[in-house]
Structure formats: structure tokens, C-alpha cells
Amino acid sequence: MATVCGIAAVINLGLTHSPPSSKNFVFFASHHRLKLRSCPRKSLFSRRSNSRDSGLFKSVQLDVYITSDDEDEMGEGFFEAIEELERMAREPSDVLEEMNDRLSARELQLVLVYFAQEGRDSWCALEVFEWLKKENRVDKETMELMVSIMCTWVKKLIEERSKVEDVVDLLVDMDCVGLKTSFSMVEKVISLYWEAGEREEAVLFVKEVLRRGISGLDEDKEGNKGGPAGYLAWKMMLGGLLLNPEFYEEGNYRDAAKFVIHLRECGLKPEVYSHLIAMASVVKELNEFAKALRKLKGFTKSGLVAELDADNVLLIENYQEDLLATGLRLSNWVIEEGGPSLHGVVHERLLAMYVCAGRGSEAEGQLWQMKLAGKQADVDLYDIVLAICASQKESSSVGRLLSRMDVASSFQRKKTLSWLLRGYIKGGHFKSAAETVIKMLDMGLHPEFLDRVAVLQGLSRRIQQGGNVDAYLALCKRLSDANLIGPTLLYLHLRKHKLWIIKML
Asked: Is 460 helix (H, G, I), strand (E, B) or coil?
């Protein structure tokens, strides 16, 4: 017997107003995606029944892979069913009910294929499938066949640039006749729009789906539900930008966040999961923005570009503030509309936002909020936040974060104090950095060589600026006691007396 692959490889499989397609594919269902495979084709009929008018099939271009055994199985009932259904004198269900015993499963599949062709009554195909469902005659092959037909119809509508409402109507019809797929048909339509470059139509499609309240939700392993808004937001975040100037900007990750907010401002209610995707896009944008700022500072330091003036600094700060405000707005919606199980994820997203923005005290607050929500942050995140707080000289936050060292291993203590030390170095707090080095030595921990050099160089520059040598001398003595540096020569120049004083420490 021929398989569904053979049956579904039909020329001109589409809606009655669609143009013939140059290629024929079978859509094989899988979760969240469809694989395409082309099928070989042969002529469906090599013979005609003497009692049938050969003109009935002259305009029918059915090319499928079919064996001679299949042709022999097509009895008089098949041809009679086609004629009766084409006359439309009676309801399709009545015709099929009357001929139920005379039609095999194979012949019923071919009836579906016949009416799914170009120029045929596609509604009849839907009604035939609906009758099959009611009669419990839909097996796996028939279901896959109908799915392939529906996918082809949807694809043709998109290629023809039909109205979004027509595509949604087709999905509604599919649901009404009981067609169930092992993948999200809504997500498949979004992917087809996206791959065709019809980005604005993808947005309009999601709006129409949300407006009609069509269910297209799939649960992940944690029980969180995704849907059309989240799927399109995810597409936007991963690649390809919408170019609608009304509410999109080109060249950043903010499109996903703007899209979700735009839906809410239109009075629609995107699924909670879409807000988490939008928050992830804000994190990505903040991260990219921070990278750009570091490059800019490097160019400024090397003299390739001029120092930023006050106006540009203000623009940078405002842009970052806008991103953080967007993330907070989205998080509030998730907390209001989502369950307690999502609170930990929300605070994790906020933590990532504040880390990318270099906001130490706010990031520390999210660490404790995550803990209260039952979601434990990674140990490295505590150290990263500690370094940010140290760079900003947030003494109270540093003290709270260091309290974790009481139960930490020796390796983890060195790692944590190294992050603290580098935070002080980055923020230019070299006196605190020297105290951290001495604290590490007292605990039997040796700071990295480059870290020690950076602290000594920073203290040396401070001596030239302010003349305070106490911190420098104390650090040198402690490093010498630990055999981490050799003897230190201290030079003191008394300009008034033109005198140099040299002392070995």
C-alpha cells in the first residue's frame, strides 16, 4: 500500500483561490517544527471505469505515488462518492454516511486529497475530515495527511499575502473539525511569516490570535505556558529585526520588549511567558550596551576618540535608565499575573539586568529576593555582585556578602576575596585593596601576582598625588614578610634642600 507520503504528494494542493505551486512537499509533524520532504509522483489513474464519464477526471491533476494494487482497490463507490460530493445536492456527511460501507480507508484518504486540490471545494475536504472524526475512522496516516493539507493551505495563504484574518479563520476551522497536531500550528504560522520576511504580518497575526482568544499554549517541563506572543518575542530576540518605525528600533534587542509592551498598550493580554522573554531581551541589550561602553572607554583611553561631554554622558545614563525601567515594568506584570513559581525567575532576570548595568546594591537586593523565592543563585553570581559593590564602595553591601565566607572552603574564600580585591582595583579604591591583600595574607591566602602589582602601582600613583605613604609602606612590609617581594627601596626627594633620601625596607 502507498504511504501518507505518497498520498500527500499532490500537485496544486491548496485553496481554491491559490495559484498552483511549482513544488510539492509533505509536512511531517514534530514538536514546534515541521520537516519538509519531497515525494516522487506518478499518474493516479491509468484506467477509467466504463460506467464513468472520463471527463470527470480530465481536469483533475492528481499526481501521487501509488501502486497498481491501490488502483485495483478503487471500486465503484469511490467514483460515485466523488460525483455525489461534487454535485453538492446533499450534505457531505449524508453522502458519506450512505456510502460508508462501500469506501475503504484508502479511498477516503483519496477523497480528502481530491477536494484539497487547486480548483476544488476545500470546504468539502474539511467536512469529509469532520465526518471521519465523528465516525472514528481517522487513523494516524489520515491525521498526518490532513495536517499536511492544512499546512499547505496556510503556506499558500502567506505566500499569496492574504489577509491575516483569513489565516486565523483557517486555524479556527481546523480546530472546529477536530484536527489535532503534535506541534503548535500557531507557532508554525509565525515561523512561516518570519521566514518569508513578513515581519509586520507576523505581529498582526499574533494580535489577531490574542484578540480572538485562540488557545495555542504549550507547557514546558516546569509547567510554564508559552504562546504566540512569547514565541514571536523569542524570534525577535534571536535574530532579524522588525522595521516598523512606529514602535521598533533597528539594531538592538529591545524589539522583543517593545513588542510585548505594545501588545498590552493595545489592550491585549499576552501570556505571562512572553514577559519573561522580553525581560531576557532587556538583559541582552544591557549586556551589549555595557560592551559598547567598555570599547568606547578603551578608545578614549588610547586617545582615538575625545572624552564624552556632559550631554553624551547624560544620554548614556538615560538610555540605561530606560532599559532598567522597561525591565521593571515587565517584572511587575509577571508578578501580578503569574504564580509564585515565577517569582524566582523574575528576580533572576532582574539580577542579570542590574549586574549588566553595574548596579551593585540593587543586584544584591535581587540576590536575597531570589533566596526568599526559593531559587538559589550560583556562587559566582555572589562574587560578581561583591566585586561591583566593592568598585562602588558599597560598604554595607560588601559586609553582608562577605558574611558567606564563614562557612566557605579555603578555595572559595580565596576566590571571593580575589573578586573583592579586583572590585576595589577597578573602582580605584587602592587603600581598601591594600587592606584586602593584607587580610588575605593573614588568612594564609596568596593574592595573584597581577593583583598585587596592580595594588602597588595604584598606591604608588596615590603617593605622587597626595604624599601619603603609610598604606604603601604597610603593604610592602607585609608582602616582604610573606616573601612575595624582595627588599624595597624608598626614595624621598627634598626639593628645598636638593636632597635625596634612600631607605631600604
From this structure: helix
